[in-house]
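Supplementary Data S3. Sequence and structure tokens for construct A.
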Amino acid sequence: MRSLSLLLSLTTLTTAHFTINYPPSLEGSSIDESKEPNAPCGAIVPSLSSTDSKFTVTDFHVDGDFISLHSGHPQYNWLFRASVQEVTEGNWTQLYPIVQQSGLGDLCSQKVTAPKGWVGKKGVVGVVGGSGDGTLFQCSVVNFVQGTNSNKPSSCTNSTGVTADYTSDAELSQLVGEHVEAPVETPAPSAAPSGTSGDKSAGVVVRGGGLMALGAAVVAGVMIL
């Protein structure tokens, strides 16, 4: 009985974690789940000055690109952030309104934007997942390029039963820095995650680690996946 209890507890721990499907995670398919609680990137903290070729570097289009995730927990709040500096816990810019995913499986957010001034720079896209079991971190190394990514990756899917909403999360909002390159706006319907709706009037701006609603609530509507 004791062995069965231990196995069940380990299974619960494993399935509570998440992976980045796209852009490719620094750890690839060999994620050290025990280190996902380690800020800012889990098991690996990338150096942008490194020429290490073992990491996959993907182009990320500043006018709109994809972030695809797989969740092993029934609910997560997602913070998408990025940096073109050596990453520390004060060096991040928020890219997208915070999203709450309900349901196990895949979620793909589309039209995630980055500051236009980053074009031509190497950077890190970080995903932070907040749940009742704590806060977890994963990162991808990217090259910021101009334009919109019109080639939807095969990993950009939404699992059956997964739903999502734009939401606010004070704890996650603290994980972006004082310096903000550009405002974060709630996407219009065509820019929201696949098959979703959004209210562009409910844009948010990150200032000093917090969120400021621009004439509307931060919660911007339900995403119907």
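Construct B, processed identically:
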Amino acid sequence: METKQARGHAVPRGMTLLETMVASALAIIILAAAAALLLAGGRVVHNTEHVGDSHDHARLAGEALLSAVRQAGAGMSEGLWVVSAGVPQRINPVFGGDGAGTGLLTATTTGNVPGTEGTDDLWLVVPDRNYLGRDCAPGAAMTVVQPGTGSLQVNCVGTPSTAPAANAMLVASNMKSAALLTQATVVSSPPTATVNYLETGVPGFSNAPHKGGFQRGDLVYTARLLHFFIAPNPATGGRKALMRAEGIPATDAAGRPFMDMGDPLVLQDFVEDFQVAFGVDATNSGDPSSYVFQDGLSPEFTPGLRSVRISVVATGRNPRRDTQNQAVLAEDLPIAVENHTPPASATADGYFRSLFSRRAELPNLASASL
């Protein structure tokens, strides 16, 4: 009876060896495909993040430059008088070297050594944006009350609120032309004060030599000399970065009237190229479409300077690679910008390049902008 019942039911059995091998092979294939898809997806995400990183670096560097450019030259539409080698010289408050230039157009970097990377540099004379809100601080916006040359007599109803900076610099401007006063001190004796500066003894030095000196009503306010350039950053293994240095009046290696003072500040890492083109309205037409752009602008005063075109090229932190993570992407090469062409021998390095290029007007250098 038991034997018949046993024969009437299916007898459970396990998988044969062949079935197990087939199932295992299929599982391995599926897992391998999933792993490959996951790795490829991760590489795509990494590359996408790198592109976004590159865009951010270029945009942040470009916007920082444009912000400084728009402030430059307030009260200096007809030039800035400085003392160079003991002689008064009228210069542009905005000028810069060309990476492919020579002489005065040579781009200089930290240490005031001519650059070798083909990038440009840019000098800006920028007034302290807060000067109108101060009360008789050293270099605050004070008004000249006695015309002439030499030490300036200005209105000052209080006691200077702070000590002058170690590299104090003032600009005395009639809202057209200006003069750069270095190592200035303000000695208050209300209701006036005396502004002393190193160029006091230079014959005829002022913001308006043709008028016989400074005039009553001229404004005196603080200013900074800003120098932008590309240089390696040791903190990132020598990768290039956009740098900013504070400057002082002195002759640099290219013979220009400003020189870096101290170590530069890293403004933005992973910026490998910086190019500037200067737009000049030679015919004074006032039509931006007629500006003539040139690479590099010497310090010597250039009538009609109205615009600059800023271009920066930045990369991400890490190189992009193919989906197998075996090689960098072949299309990631240095790019040509303005008049800077990378060497023909340049090889793919996997760094995606983002170009930020904007044209900015120089509102402070337009004669109508007072």
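The longest helix spans residues 17-71. The chain has one domain: 53-365.
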